[in-house]
Write a structure and sequence with these properties.
mainly alpha; zinc; zinc ion binding; metal-binding; single chain; 0% strand
Amino acid sequence: MEKRELYDNFDQLGKKADELRLLIGNTQDSLTSLVEKNAELEIENQHLRERLRELEDKATSKNGTAGLSKSRQNLEKLYEEGFHVCNVDNMYGSRRINDEPCVFCQDVIYGERS
């Protein structure tokens, strides 16, 4: 191998090393960006879950579900599955049309009883 050929090979090796260094740098920058974005999304996800829990708790206390007796909870479950639980016009147990809300059913479940 001649000195010139040896020099050219060494020069090409240096250029390839520079290209590889650049590629590694770009990949590292991309990875850092992805890790940061992932951390942001995890934090946002955690906040959204906490907010959802708060809203669910608020809705539960608003509807009075937390204070429902076992029998009312069973009626609520039937109602949520699309069935009437009221006895207006002998509707108890029949399907609610298009799962439309029924004020009478909601009164049976959530209404005040003395």
